[in-house]
UniProtKB/TrEMBL annotation:
Gene3D superfamilies: 2.70.98.10. InterPro entries: GH-type_carb-bd. It comes from Actinomadura napierensis. It comes from the Bacteria. This is DUF5107 domain-containing protein.
Length: 560
């Protein structure tokens, strides 16, 4: 019996086709389709791959373009191994009321002994609907601050040990309780940010109002883990300074030690300044703790200057993300040898250096792991990193100064661990987020030195991206994606947080300086401006963003 497509439906908004297979797909062309035990896949499929897998008959967009020519570059994803969701590019919808069909190519998928290539009917609704988010792009901007807000962190109940710092495994109860935490909520027309100075000095949440999605991860149920088994009063053998940890989420500073530092769960001092329509929250902490039972690896050598570590921990998950980084290579932690079987080497045998290609996709993390980005401070277009959700093309990016924070650490629980864990499972802290850390030193337990009287400062900016499948360059003025295919066809996309402002984008042949396309546009809250053109087959292209006065705000060049 031949197996194939069981049915195909068009989404209510008219810009997606959901294909249901009558069996689990093992491979789609050359692409392995992975699935966790609980049925989560997240495998991404490009437009070229879709055109090789499927044919469409009688289906066009409202503007008359064939469906196969109106796909996004990141054209589809498998939410599970028996469902494929195909996405039209932003601004495109299928022709209302149209009737057409979709069919698999011969040998396009594997997972059954024989594959049916029969046409399967597709009916497009006559009217499209959108759930909406309540966001009014034409509404006035405003600033609202609530300094007396609270949130409740659901977590397993625990008892702090006699040393006043650690938690032992037998000190964790079999019940979940709600811990009320004081917060400061700040919102304007576009964002709602929640700060928790009293719990690790963190920016707990940042909701982008046009989508109502939180750009950060918040743990629905916290559970202590990583305990020390050493006797009380002796140096611990936990991975963590306090001999335990519990994941909450958001973005927070960790100092003066590696991992999550000393102060991830304690109050920080804070001060609020609000005047003339602006808000500032200053959060400070004096390093005055020396926990005697800390693990011995947290004892740094003494000498001139202060040995310290500083890392900004970002707990990112705007949905089911894949990483999008300006990292040419990575240096895996020696404890996670499985990575060497996924990526190609980028250095001598045994060096641990790997290229970063497949591990940009969350679905390719078969297990938990640590790896460190390399050469960030010397890379062109390299002062950023972040994640993109390919199910809704929404991302979050951190922009910084890699000369000041040259370290970048990846942490992932692994696809299976992340999605197969019951959040109420006591002691199992695996969750579906990606930790990307920015450090003043290159790796954990490789401290930097702060000289007497020395002050270090830098700016970190966190911004949402919309309508981008990948990122070429980012700064505080926007995010861009520039691609040139083998034939020299150029596609450029640009999203700017300057929503409602007049901007100008120019796509240029990087070799000749010739303009390939221009667009004067008003920044939108949920869509990128798109440009296209043609260069020589081995050529590159540059996208330039300027404001109304002609001042350059951002440039991005393909191939760098």
């Amino acid at each position: 019996m031949k197996r194939g497509i069981a049915g195909a439906d068009v989404g209510a908004s008219g810009d997606q086709i959901r294909i249901r297979f009558d069996h689990r797909i093992a491979k789609a062309g050359d692409l392995a389709v992975k699935e966790t035990k609980t049925g989560v896949s997240g495998t991404n499929v490009t437009a070229d791959q879709i055109r090789g897998l499927l044919s469409f008959t009688g289906l066009t967009t409202a503007s008359g373009r064939p469906v196969s020519e109106a796909l996004r570059d990141d054209a589809a994803y498998f939410p599970d191994a028996s469902t494929l969701v195909i996405k039209l590019d932003s601004g495109q919808t299928l022709r209302p009321g149209a009737r057409g069909a979709v069919a698999l190519g011969k040998g396009a998928v594997t997972g059954a002994s024989a594959t049916s290539t029969a046409l399967v009917p597709v009916q497009v609704p006559r009217h499209f609907t959108s759930s909406g988010t309540g966001f009014n792009p034409d509404g006035p901007d405003y600033l609202k601050v609530d300094t007396h807000a609270t949130t409740v962190f659901q977590r397993y109940d625990y008892k702090v040990s006699g040393d006043g710092v650690s938690v032992r495994q037998d000190g964790v109860a079999d019940k979940v309780v709600g811990q009320t935490i004081k917060t400061v909520e700040v919102e304007n027309k576009y964002l709602k940010a929640t700060f928790a100075p009293g719990y690790g000095g963190r920016l707990l949440s940042m909701i982008y109002k046009p989508t109502r999605h939180d750009l950060f991860y918040n743990n629905p149920v916290g559970t202590p883990y990583g305990f020390s088994s050493a006797p009380a009063g002796q140096p611990g053998n936990s991975p963590f300074y306090q001999n335990w940890l519990m994941v909450y989420g958001g973005v927070f500073p960790t100092l003066t030690e590696a991992e999550h530092g000393k102060y991830w769960n304690v109050p920080w001092d804070h001060k609020i300044d609000q005047s003339k329509g602006k808000f500032a929250l200053t959060i400070t902490k004096t390093d005055d703790v020396d926990y005697p039972d800390k693990p011995s690896k947290y004892v740094y050598p003494t000498g001139q200057g202060k040995k310290y570590e500083y890392w900004t921990c970002t707990t990112l998950a705007p949905g089911a993300p894949t990483m999008s980084d300006r990292v040419a290579g990575q240096d895996r932690d020696p404890g996670y040898k499985w990575m060497a079987g996924v990526e190609k080497p980028a250095g001598p045998a045994g060096s641990g250096l790997l290229k970063l290609d497949k591990l940009k996709q969350m679905s390719n993390w078969s297990d938990m792991g640590i790896t460190y980005g390399q050469d960030l401070a010397t890379m062109q277009q390299g002062n950023w990193w972040g994640v993109v959700n390919h199910e809704n093309d929404e991302g979050v990016v951190r922009v910084g100064d890699n000369a000041k924070t040259p370290g970048m650490k990846f942490w992932e629980w692994g696809q299976n661990n992340s999605f197969d864990t019951n959040v109420f499972s006591k002691g199992n802290s695996a969750r579906p987020y990606i930790d990307l850390w920015a450090g003043a030193s290159m790796k954990f337990f490789s401290p930097a030195t702060l000289k007497a009287g020395q002050t270090l400062s830098w700016t970190e900016t966190y911004l949402p991206t919309m309508d981008l499948g990948d990122v070429t360059n980012v700064n505080a003025n926007g995010a861009t994606e520039v691609k040139v295919d083998a034939s020299g066809t150029v596609t450029g996309r640009l999203f700017s947080p300057a929503i409602g402002q007049k901007l100008h984008a120019t796509l240029v042949d990087a070799s000749t300086g010739k303009a390939l396309g221009t667009s004067t546009f008003t920044g939108k809250a949920n869509a990128a401006v798109k440009l296209g053109g043609k260069v020589a087959p081995v050529g590159q292209a540059r996208l330039v963003l300027t404001d109304a006065s002609g001042t350059t705000l951002l440039t991005a060049e393909s191939g760098t």
